[in-house]
Amino acid sequence: MDDATDATPPRPEQRGDAGTAGTGPDPHPSGGPARRRRGVLLASVAGCAVLGGVLALLPWGRGPERPPEPEPWARARAAVTAGVPAALPDLDALLEEHRRRVRDDPRDAVSWAVLGAARVERGRRLADPASYSRAEEALRTSLKVRPEGNAPALRGLAALANARGDHGRARAWGEAARKLEPGRWTSYPPLIEACAGLGDHKAVGPLLERLVELRKGPVVKARKAAVYRDRGWREDAAAQIADAAAGASGPAERAAYLERAGQLAWERGERESALAHFRAAVRTDPDQRAALAGEARALTALGRTTEALSAHRIALEKQPLPEYALELGELYASLGMEQAAGVQYDLVRELVRKAAAHGVAGDLVLGRLEADHGDAGAAVRRLRAEYRRRPSAAVADALGWALHREGRHAEALRYAVRATEGEHGGGARVALHVFHRGMIERALERPGPARRHLREALRINPWFSPLRVPEAKAALARLGEPSVAAGPESS
After folding, report:
1. What angle in degrees, to the nearest 10, is found between the helix axes of 431-443 and 468-479?
2. CA-to-CA distance for 319 and 283, rounded, in angstroms?
């Protein structure tokens, strides 16, 4: 039954003569209305007794029949085709199901597209670049089987290119998918990600507005949070990602949004809040590997070095990204463990080399490594080429820093300004980027701007790097306080 009150008879009306009904002669001795009312009441009570017995035999609290839970592969398919994180066991079931389908029917273009999208997600979650090559094979097979009007395959190729760091190609695939299906909301998230990766934040705004018109819900709130973060709207970004986590439909999705909330808190220098978010993400989905790396950063900031080292090692083992190896190496270096740091720097190069064999761009992380711990000239050459491909704030920052390390400070400042200002993502005010700008300005003997930006970096996040924070503090100490007699400093 839908409502328990349906089984309860209505209370009889209270009559003014109820107290005297049995004291006088029956006004209807032949069984009139009063007797009939008593009969109805007895029948009603008896009916309720029977009904109560039936209910007692049913499972307690059982409501109307619910539809059966979807199969794990079906849950993963719904998530993957909507660009939502899928649980790894469900993802494995989806891969198995669609491998079977394309074996049974090699002309099934939709199953080939879903198989490719699932392989992209698997490669991203596990940092397995070989999955990207298999994903490309499946997606291109889908296009070969159905060369016209195949928007799902085009969206999959856009997601694949984003995962590989090839945002230019992702934009081309995404635009092709949107042209075919401009009214389908799933055509927009990969295109927004591609434009953001290219530093084209002017294009991001209209795309986001259209997405919001077409779709509401957690996945859109998470996309809005990323855009707001790039614009420097930190509080708005945090509010959006918190709402996304609260409304997420499953543990894997919720954990992904909790990890992003932790990252936003970390960028603001909120160590304890970041750690709480990262740990909540891992509790929600133990396969949320990015949260393990975030936990390591927060523990480092809190001075819990032994725990931080352990968390870094686990994160790197479970999701072997070169970025994680570089972070771990710099933590070792900050502790004076140069040999251990060198092992991690070698691992960065090896991971980048393996990923490049499957089309994954690693020039940004390799350029950062070479600028600080290797050949600055090689870093400049590598990062110039990367900047031509995707002129984002992150690449502008890395190129500017490499130029500074090579001694070309004036040219470096142009890229540092681009990384910290303007419409190319510089509005995010990343502590590391602001630190780099301050150090470049100091090398150019511009003490006022250098002092201001170094202080800003430490104000944004006083623990942004175990290696660079001590450098920032030492540089500020050498700069000293501005001289009142010298007058106002230039900007």
Report:
1. 40
2. 17
The residues, any chain, with a CB within 8 Å of residue 65's CB and separated by 6 or more, are none
pLDDT of 23 reads 37
Q: Is the dihedral of CA 197, 203, 209, 215 positive or negative?
A: negative
Nearest to 313 by CA among 334, 337, 329: 329
- What span, in angstroms and rounded, lies between the C-alpha atoms of 293 and 296? 5
pLDDT digits (tens, 9 = 90+) for 84-101: 889 999 999 999 999 999
Give the tokens for residue 323.
């970025």
Which stretch of 75-84, 186-195, 337-346 has the lowest confidence by average pLDDT? 75-84
Question: What share of the chain has pLDDT > 70, as a percent?
Answer: 84
Q: Which residue has tokens 């780099």? A: 436
Q: Could you tell me where in the chain the CATH 1.25.40.10 domains are found?
A: 216-302, 380-479
Domain covering 216-302 assigned CATH 1.25.40.10 in the classification: yes
Assign residue 108 a region (left: φ > 0; alpha: ψ between -120 and 50; beta: otherwise).
beta
- Percentage of the chain beyond pLDDT 90 is 79
Averaged over 62-84, what is the pLDDT? 79
| Phi-psi domain of 199 (left: phi exceeds 0; alpha: psi -120 through 50; beta: other) | left
What are the b/e assignments for 416-453, b being 16+ CB within 10 Å?
A: bbbbbeebbbbbbbbbbbbbbbbbbbbbeebbebbbbb
Q: Which two tokens stand for residue 207?
A: 């795309």
Mean pLDDT over each residue of the chain, to the nearest integer: 87
- 380-479 CATH: 1.25.40.10
